[in-house]
Amino acid sequence: MILSKFVDELPIPPVLKPYRKHPYHTYYKVHMTEFKQSLHSELNDTTVWGYEGRYPGPTIEVESGEKVFVKWINNLPAKHLLPVDYTVHGAHLDVPEVRTVVHVHGASVEPESDGYPEAWFTKGFKKVGPYYTKKVYRYDNCMRSCTLWYHDHTLGITRLNIYAGLAGFYLVRDQQERLLNLPCGSYEIPLMIQDKSFNKDGSLYYPRQPEKPVPELKTSIVPEFIGDTILVNGKVWPYLKVEPRKYRFRLLNASNTRFYRLKLDSGQLLYQIGTDGGLMEYPIGVKEIMLAPAERADVIIDFTNLEGKNIIMTNDAPASFPTGDPADKNTGTVMQFRVTLPLSNIDTSVIPSYMGPLPKIKEKSASKIRYLTLNDNMDKYGREFMLLDNKQWDAPITENPKLGSTEIWYLINLTTDTHPIHVHLIDFQILDRRAFDVERFKKERVIHYTGPSIPPEPQERGLKDTVRANPNQVTRIIMKFGPYTGLYVWHCHILEHEDHEMMRPFVVIR
Ligand code: C2O
Ligand code: CU
Ligand code: CU
To answer: What family is reported (predicted)?
Structure first.
């Protein structure tokens, strides 16, 4: 069933209202519930999960330095909306089927409030996971202005909880950003891009078995999920009416597995001003933007003098990435901009020529280098699965950076997929990528480079929390650990990989 394109208007999630606001802190309550929502006008309403009764959840907007408390409340039914695989770590039959825990992706947060995958809780906090510590999470928001997002992070079912709808934007603002005179108000719009598939009755489709089914299991995790329909802010192929002026868009790939290479069919440039961790030093005009799952790009699109034009945002990234099927007419289409609104005011916003300093972390400042492989392996059901440093989730902790120390991580990809590797707590910088001899590495455990060091793409020259580690390459990232100590995680953000052992704890020690 192919749905018509550009028949529904793009929804813009409302900004969440605080439950209480004090001079020194703000308190929110956020409920997770199951409800029906129209994802396309030709489709029956779809049962989804969401925060505060909507999918995507309301946007949480905070000021840099603001102390924010959030009580995340699970009011979901006891039965999962999607097929749970009870053989996956953390989702065995000894735990309740529906569990949640919330992580603000990209935020620097004390460990008790970071949404540790085993800190889950059920409805009414009746049952909680072994690492659960408290009901109300605390966010100190010590980051600069940036585009973050909150989403579920429960061990073993993150892919299902996020696919069901548990995701929303979390924007941090600051004075530096305000002084730049960027497009704002109704001219600043977050765009959460996801792929899904639907059953005829409008319900969400998520496979029960991989292409090569596991006969002894009723439900088995799949190695990747590739949907045939693209949604933005929870609508299938929406359109947005715009004025002939500049707009700022916060692009987020919140898909399970799919990568996007986004372009405008008008051929015009996108002016990227920010990465995962906030504003870059200089804006860059680019024809295309690559976004792996969880990556963000802050862009300005200028519709000036384009009155009457329809502009389509397209995608030409293969799925899976980089060796999967090319995008088709459907998955190659994201949304449409219609320049049909009259200009309501003179556009005085700007694309700044310089946003602010962003000092490079010096390689010399690193006190520790870690060599970490990305591997594939076979589990006891004969399913291929991916590992970090050849270790499963519950192997003893090996990454234990010291508070305040700088480390360089070599991500040595021995698989044929690109993995978006995400590290909690900190932002890193990408040093370089470099081709190496995989077969030789597997035999001798030494890196033999076969090509020159490739600097990060212009789109990646800012603070990052998620990096594409390509096959046959060593990707090097550098980061300083702090300001908190304690237990965090790093993982692949392909959710099917994350749920199936491609996640590891790490601990920041004193
Ligand atoms: Cu977007 Cu560990 O998360
Ligand atoms: Cu994160
Ligand atoms: Cu992966």
So the answer is: Belongs to the multicopper oxidase family.
